Amino acid sequence: MERSNYFEYYVGLSALLIAGSAAFFSVFGLSKLFAGAALSVIVMAGSLEFGKIVGASFLYRYWNKIHTWLKIYMTVGVITLVGITSAGIFGYLSNAYQGATIQFEKQSTTLLYKEDRLEQLEEDKIYLKEELEQSLSSLPDNYITAKRKLREDYNPKVLELNDTILKIKQEVGDLKVGLIETGVDVGPAIYLARAFNTDIDTVVKFFIFILIFVFDPMAVSLVIAYNRILEDDNVERNKVNKLFTEYKSNKPNRKPKRIEKKKKLKRKASKIKHGEDDYLITEKTERKKQVQKGGIAGR
């Protein structure tokens, strides 16, 4: 089957991009996990990432030539490094998600607290009103001054509660507006969480697991595929070189014939130059004979 001239470059570029991206996310994810020695972790993880790619290529190329124990060790090592890379990617994406949602979570927590406080104040207001009604009903009807005194005592408390309730309602409204603005960064996650009737953390965790499941394994697979393409190209190139060599070895050598032809032409030119050409020699002989015959006839 004929392959595109650029296909091997596409595969190689794809392998390089995916493997490089996986290495970047993994290295910086591990550096976040071990923040106390970030530079050392970056150097170590970067070396391991490069070794993983080279190890996978080596295993593919020399699978039938290396010792069994080396084969087992390198296979386990590559698989383990794939797992480490996946863990690093998980850490990097989790950290990015937490950075994007930390303000959203703060505002959500504050909103919940304010709503609970508002509900409690509403209950306190109802309790004060009920208490005032009970106190008024306990007094006789002719205790007008006492009833007025009770109302005057309760009114400041009720007014204070109303002011507090109004203030908290304003804060709740501001928090809801802020949540809408902050939620733009995590809007898709919120929508999916509502669609599947679950929380945002579960949705994000699910997508991160999907990403790490295909990310690094796909990079290693494309590296192996690129090695296979290079191997096939080498086989085809060797076949072409072999056919060309066989053609050259079986091709008739016309060089001696050309040399012989040149020699003949050179000899002929030399004869013509010195009057030794066969045609000229024959013509001279005929003239000589005619001269001799003419002499005999004249006598």
Please give a handful of descriptors for the protein shown.
299 residues; mainly alpha; 87% helix; 0% strand
Residue-averaged pLDDT: 75
Instruction: Describe the largest sheet.
Output: none
Count of the separate structural domains: 2
Gap between N and C termini: 96 Å
Question: Pairing-aware structural class of the strands and helices?
Answer: mainly alpha
Number of strands: 0
Kindly provide the radius of gyration, computed on alpha-carbon positions and rounded to a whole number of angstroms.
Answer: 49 Å
Q: Tell me roughly what share of residues is in helical segments.
A: over 70%
> What's the SSE pattern?
HHHHHHHH
Give the count of helical stretches: 8
What shape does the CA trace take?
A: rod-shaped
Q: Name the beta content range.
A: under 5%
* Unreliable stretches: none
Q: What can you tell me about this protein's structure?
A:
It is a single chain. The chain has 2 domains: 7-247, no CATH class; 260-288, no CATH class. The chain has 299 residues and is mostly helical. The relative contact order is 0.09. The mean pLDDT is 75. It has 8 helices and no strands. The two termini are 96 Å apart.
The gist of it:
With 299 residues, this protein is mainly α. The protein has 8 helices and no strands. Helix 1 runs antiparallel to helix 2 (38-61) and helix 3 runs antiparallel to helix 4 (144-182).
